[in-house]
Design goal:
Distance between the termini: 13 Å
Largest sheet: 7 strands, mixed
CATH architecture of the largest domain: Alpha-Beta Complex
Strand content: 25-35%
Shape: globular
Number of helices: 11
Mean pLDDT: 96
Number of strands: 18
Number of domains: 2
Low-confidence stretches: none
Order of helices and strands: EEEHEEEEHEEEHHEHEHEHEHEHEHEHE
Structural class: alpha/beta
CATH topology of the largest domain: Quinone Oxidoreductase, Chain A, domain 1
Radius of gyration: 20 Å
Helix content: 25-40%
Bound molecules: zinc ion
CATH superfamily of the largest domain: Medium-chain alcohol dehydrogenases, catalytic domain
Length: 351
C-alpha cells in the first residue's frame, strides 16, 4: 500500500509499504480522509521540538522511524482481528488516537490525554492516517452516524481538541470569552464555545483571510491584533467588560501577555496551543485577581462522543476553511501551510 513516511527532519517520502494485518483486539481500516495538523508541521520542520524524541524507540509504543504520519483520520473497517466481532466490518469510524502509558496518575484516572508519555496513532505508533490502511485497537473506535461523512469524521480529532479546551474552562453559559488565534483550533473553539452556551465569543486573529473565513461562518466579534489601537478596539468589540475566559490557540507569547490583563478575577486562561518559543511572563498578573492558567492536551472519549453528536446535529460548518488534497500532496501542503496558505487540509487517501 502507499503511505507517507517521516524519516527525519525535512524528509517525508511517499512509499510502498506492506499492508498491516489486525492482531487480537484490533481492526483494520481503509482510510478515507486524514487531516494535516499544526503538530505535523512541528514534526517535519523541528522534530527536536515536537515533543517526541524520534532518536529512540517511543517509551509507550516502541515505535521508531520511519513513521507513517497522520493522527486525524476517519475510515471504514475492512477486517478484524481475533476477539473482535465481524459485525464491525463496514462500520465508518473516527479513531481516538491516544496511547497512554497505562500506569501513571493520569492513565489510572482514565485521562490518558494528560499522560506525560502519551503519544498518538500517526505520531509515534505502528502506522498512521496518511496511508491506505491502518490497524488500531477496537477500543479506540467511535462509530460515525449517517449524517457524519468520512470528511467530517476526519475533523472529529481537531474539533475534539477545541471541545476539550472549552470544557476545561468550566461552565461558560452566558459568559464572554476571547479566543486568540483563528486557525482550525480557533475555529473549533468558536463552534464549541457557542455550542456550550457562551453568550459572546470574540476571536482575535491577525490574518484578514482567516477573519474572513470566520465571518463567513457567522462570527461577528472579530478582532485584528495588529490594528494600531488594538487594545481599545478589543475593549470596544467586547463591550468594555473583562473576559470570563481566554483561550490561547495561537502559541504567541506577546498575544498572551496582552490578553491576560483582560481576564476577569478568578477567570481562566486555557492554553491549548504548543508554543515553539519560551517568553517572558510576569506571574503578578495571576496573583492579582486570582486568575488561573490551565494547560490542556488532546481529549477524552467523552469529548469525541459530544463532538460527533454535535456534528450529527449539523452544528459544524466546513465552508471556507477545509480543503482536500491527494496523498501525493502531503509534503507540498505542509510547505503551503507553513507559508500561510489554507487552513485545514484533509488528505483524500484514495484519490
Ligand atoms: Zn492534531
Ligand atoms: Zn500514563
Amino acid at each position: 500500500m502507499r503511505a507517507i513516511r517521516f524519516h527525519g527532519k525535512h524528509d517525508l517520502r511517499l512509499e510502498e509499504v506492506p499492508e498491516p494485518t489486525p492482531g487480537a483486539g484490533q481492526v483494520k481500516l481503509r482510510i478515507g480522509y486524514a487531516g494535516i495538523c499544526g503538530s505535523d508541521l512541528h514534526t517535519y520542520y523541528s522534530p527536536e521540538h515536537s515533543g517526541t524524541d524520534y532518536t529512540v524507540p517511543h517509551p509507550v509504543t516502541g515505535a521508531e522511524l520511519p513513521q507513517i504520519l497522520g493522527h486525524e483520520f476517519a475510515g471504514e473497517v475492512v477486517d478484524v482481528g481475533s476477539g473482535v466481532s465481524a459485525e464491525r466490518i463496514g462500520q465508518r469510524v473516527a479513531v481516538w488516537p491516544i496511547y497512554g502509558c497505562g500506569h501513571c496518575f493520569a492513565c489510572d484516572g482514565g485521562t490518558d490525554n494528560a499522560c506525560i508519555d502519551a503519544t498518538f496513532h500517526g505520531v509515534a505508533s505502528d502506522g498512521g492516517g496518511f496511508s491506505e490502511f491502518t490497524v488500531v485497537p477496537e477500543s479506540q473506535l467511535h462509530v460515525l452516524p449517517a449524517k457524519v461523512d468520512l470528511k467530517l469524521g476526519a475533523l472529529v480529532e481537531p474539533m475534539a481538541v477545541a471541545w476539550h479546551a472549552a470544557r476545561a474552562a468550566g461552565d461558560l453559559r452566558d459568559r464572554s470569552v476571547l479566543v486568540i488565534g483563528g486557525g482550525p483550533i480557533g475555529i473549533g473553539l468558536w463552534h464549541a464555545l457557542r455550542l456550550q452556551g457562551a453568550a459572546q465569543v470574540v476571536v482575535s486573529e491577525p490574518s484578514a483571510g482567516r477573519r474572513d473565513v470566520l465571518a463567513g461562518l457567522g462570527a461577528e466579534l472579530l478582532h485584528d491584533p495588529f490594528t494600531p489601537d488594538a487594545a481599545d478596539e478589543l475593549g470596544r468589540i467586547a463591550g468594555g467588560g473583562p473576559f470570563d475566559a481566554i483561550f490561547d490557540a495561537a502559541g504567541s507569547g506577546p498575544a498572551l501577555n496582552n490578553a491576560l490583563p483582560r481576564l476577569r478575577p478568578l477567570g481562566t486562561l486555557v492554553v491549548v496551543a504548543l508554543h515553539e518559543k519560551a517568553f517572558d511572563f510576569d506571574p503578578t498578573v495571576l496573583v492579582l485577581g486570582e486568575r488561573r492558567v490551565l494547560g490542556v492536551h488532546g481529549y477524552t472519549h467523552e469529548d469525541y462522543d459530544q463532538v460527533i453528536d454535535a456534528m450529527s446535529a449539523g452544528h459544524y460548518r466546513t465552508d471556507g476553511w477545509v480543503e482536500t488534497a491527494p496523498l501525493t500532496a502531503v509534503e507540498s501542503s505542509i510547505h503551503g501551510l507553513r507559508n500561510g496558505d489554507g487552513s485545514k487540509i484533509l488528505i483524500e487517501v484514495a484519490r
